[in-house]
Amino acid sequence: MAMQAHDIEALIRAAFPQARISITDLAGDGNHYAAEVVDESFRGMNRVQQQRAVYAALKGRMDGPNGELHALALTTKAPE
């Protein structure tokens, strides 16, 4: 089952309300996205910690073969 970009953004926004979020559908199939999330809460975290926080915000939508979201290329960082 495919997800819409606005659904992905809404899940991330719920966890990071002040973040700058950009979602791109890479293949036009609703299954392969790229996301950039820039949020102050990432300051002091390493990249793995930042990305785990974003994946947690997706609330299992990428879990296992029955996940709604197949692939998400994720870029995270604190604002400059």
Task: Give an overview of the whole structure.
With 80 residues, this protein is α+β, with helices and mostly antiparallel strands. The chain has a single domain, classed as GMP Synthetase, Chain A, domain 3 (2-Layer Sandwich), CATH 3.30.300. It is 28% helix and 25% strand. It is built from two helices and three strands; from the N terminus they run αββαβ. Strands 1-2-3 form a three-stranded mixed sheet. Strand 1 and strand 2 form a beta hairpin. The protein is globular, with a radius of gyration of 12 Å.
Relative strand content: 25-35%
Q: Which runs of at least 5 residues are low in confidence (pLDDT < 50)?
A: none
Spatial order of the strands in the main sheet? 1-2-3
Fraction in helix: 25-40%
Quick one: overall form?
Answer: globular
Number of distinct helices: 2
Chain-averaged pLDDT: 93
Which second-level CATH architecture applies?
A: 2-Layer Sandwich
Main structural class: alpha+beta
CATH names the topology as GMP Synthetase, Chain A, domain 3
**If you compute it from the alpha carbons, what radius of gyration comes out, rounded to the nearest whole angstrom?**
12 Å
Write the layout of secondary structure elements.
Blueprint: H1 5-15, E1 20-25, E2 32-38, H2 47-57, E3 71-77
Parallel strand pairs: 2-3
Antiparallel strand pairs: 1-2
Name its key features.
80 residues; alpha+beta; GMP Synthetase, Chain A, domain 3; 3-stranded mixed β-sheet; 2 helices
TL;DR?
The protein has 80 residues and is an alpha+beta fold. The chain has a single domain, classed as GMP Synthetase, Chain A, domain 3 (2-Layer Sandwich). It has 2 helices and 3 strands.
